[in-house]
């Protein structure tokens, strides 16, 4: 048994507005199957959606999870940055320095993302959304590899990465130390392939923990991975 990565979901104060930003930036179509939010079809070989769930959480620090967008040429990189700024993004300083070849931006609700320079061999062939780059331990990379059934494609110096056997976006973890909880972030929504309760128990056996105090109105089961990042197992697989 395993889970499918159903959606990478943003905490959003204005889900519709944030979905329009990302739809415009990435050229994505609307989906209607996220039980408690707005969803876009990622068009990515990894087969997930982008979700936007209503949340009143306040952003207190840099996100632990962010997208790395790829570029095919310097002109393509500049065009992506210009389009993002026209749609309401802003430049962001996360300590990258003035000589960085990648461009760090924040969407209209402050979620950081990077537009990478062309020639990134590690993300070659991964698509426009090359990576979901996560702040996290080696152990959490191992956890998500087992949880999703995605093989490790990088495991060196406490940095890990996994990728769907079908290809597409890589999930990467940069190793310690962990950044503080930002309060408002991106989260993974899983759809179980089979009995949900059995899948919840399997994820717990791998190192997840139940968030018993959390209530999800959609009926999803909220859990936390070994680094304490909240994720959900959706009600319908």
Automatic annotation (TrEMBL):
Annotated InterPro entries: Glyas_Bleomycin-R_OHBP_Dase, Glyoxalase_6, VOC_core
CDD domains, A to Z: VOC
Short name of any one Pfam family annotated for the protein: Glyoxalase_6
Sequence ranges assigned to domain VOC in this UniProt record: 125-236
PANTHER family tied to this protein: CONSERVED PROTEIN, HYPOTHETICAL FUSION PROTEIN
Name by which UniProt lists this protein: VOC family protein
Organism: Streptomyces gilvifuscus
């Amino acid at each position: 048994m395993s889970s499918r990565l159903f959606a990478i979901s943003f905490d959003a104060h204005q889900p519709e507005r944030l979905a329009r930003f990302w739809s415009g930036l990435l050229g994505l179509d609307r989906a209607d199957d996220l039980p408690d939010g707005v969803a876009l079809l990622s068009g990515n070989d990894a087969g997930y959606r982008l979700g936007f769930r209503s949340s009143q959480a306040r952003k207190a620090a840099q996100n632990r999870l962010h997208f790395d967008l790829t570029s095919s040429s310097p002109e393509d990189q500049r065009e992506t940055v210009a389009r993002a700024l026209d749609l309401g993004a802003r430049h962001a300083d996360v300590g990258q320095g003035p000589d960085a070849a990648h461009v760090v931006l924040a969407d209209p609700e402050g979620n950081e993302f990077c537009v990478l320079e062309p020639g990134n061999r590690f993300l070659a062939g991964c698509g426009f959304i090359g990576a979901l780059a996560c702040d996290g331990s080696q152990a959490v990379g191992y956890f998500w590899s087992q949880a999703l059934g995605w093989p490790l494609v990088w495991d060196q110096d406490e940095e890990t990465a996994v990728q769907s056997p079908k290809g597409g976006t890589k999930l990467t973890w940069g190793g310690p130390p962990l950044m503080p909880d930002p309060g408002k972030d991106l989260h993974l929504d899983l759809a179980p392939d089979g009995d949900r309760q059995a899948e919840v128990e399997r994820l717990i056996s791998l190192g997840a923990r139940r968030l018993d105090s959390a209530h999800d109105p959609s009926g999803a089961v909220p859990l936390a991975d070994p680094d304490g990042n909240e994720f959900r197992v959706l009600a319908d697989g």
